[in-house]
Amino acid sequence: MQNDVLQTVEELRDEMKESLMEMLKIPAVGPDSDGDGEAERAKFLMDHIKTFGFVEIKRYDAKDERTSSGIRPNIVALKKGKTDKTVTIIAHMDIVPEGDLDEWDTDPYEPVFKDGKIYGRGAEDNGQALMSALYAAKALTISGITPEYNLKVILVSDEETGSTYGVDHLLNEGVISPDEIVVVPDHSEEKGKKIVISEKSATWVKIIVHGKQGHAAIPATAINANRVMAKYQYEVDTILHKKFNQNNELFSPPNCTFEPTKREKNVPNTNTIPGKEIQSFDCRLIPEVPISEVKKVFKDKAKEISDETGANIELIFPMEKVTPPGTSEDAEVVKKLKSAIKSVTGIDAKVCGIGGGTVASHFRDRGIPAAVWATSDEVPHQPNEYSVLDYMVNDCKVFVSLVTSD
Fold first, then answer.
1. Which domains does the chain have, with CATH numbers?
2. 11 is catalytic
3. pLDDT for 140-165, tens place per residue?
4. Catalytic: which of 38, 64, 124, 159?
């Protein structure tokens, strides 16, 4: 029976490709990134899946007056199984902006299929998983097979910018219950050979050095914010790596990461000493390292160098995320995923943790075990982003196995 539906998935290969390419023509950038949201993409999907065999397709829209539609849509589609148990697969409709178009070989909103890959913004993140989940339902319907478990496919908005209007809205509405088997196909480790069960905590640090602007020919009249920032960045970075050097082998990489990232523009000309410098750090922490201790290092060093140089170093912490405990390796979702992956691909998937963030943490925060798994080359947010058709088809087969095996 399962072989029949897996063969049906294979026969749907071209349709899956065409459906993804049609969807990718519809931009779905949220208003936090200067887009108009996901309403048009949601409309396309609602029409597209009417014949997929879902017994119920509902919208749970969150109000957002920043979009022309006034809402951020969320779609919940249910296919009934033989039991009351539900496998819930959550993918997101929203995408990040295309970025510098000069870096793209093709138009990001005119998808191209080449060498087994579908190129376009959002192809991998998260269009591939979205189609894999939806076509699992269609394959079951065409094959005339009632799965052991209910299959619930949830398509959310706002994943890229916080999930307030997406997963959090649905959790607050009680759409997902604690006994559901929740899979988030929004990250791939080693091309699907690992299942993500935990995420690092994170904090962002914005450092603002207030010095004194002056002429480069008479530096004694100024306090060079650039030099102060360079000193601060080097010394705080050195302390962080020395003080928090422990490893947790569940994670990849196993250590904490402290990365200086965004540097904001200072003066426009070479012969002016800058009086202000702004630099940001992205810090990802294994569970053994408290965010409070990391923040203390930034604060103590800021005071020390401010006293030494006469500059004022201001710190802002614009984002702080303490992730909940990870999903147990013995959780039902992990065991079922391992079994489904093994049956389709032959791979004995291992568990791991990651430094990035997914909506799985929102479920774990509410006591709902969740696992993150998909197959991809990990090219999200990049120019020339792509999805591999073979990955999409095989992931669809894994999702079918997930709901047909008891």
1. 2-199+331-404 (3.40.630.10), 202-321 (3.30.70.360)
2. no
3. 999 999 999 999 999 999 999 989 99
4. 159
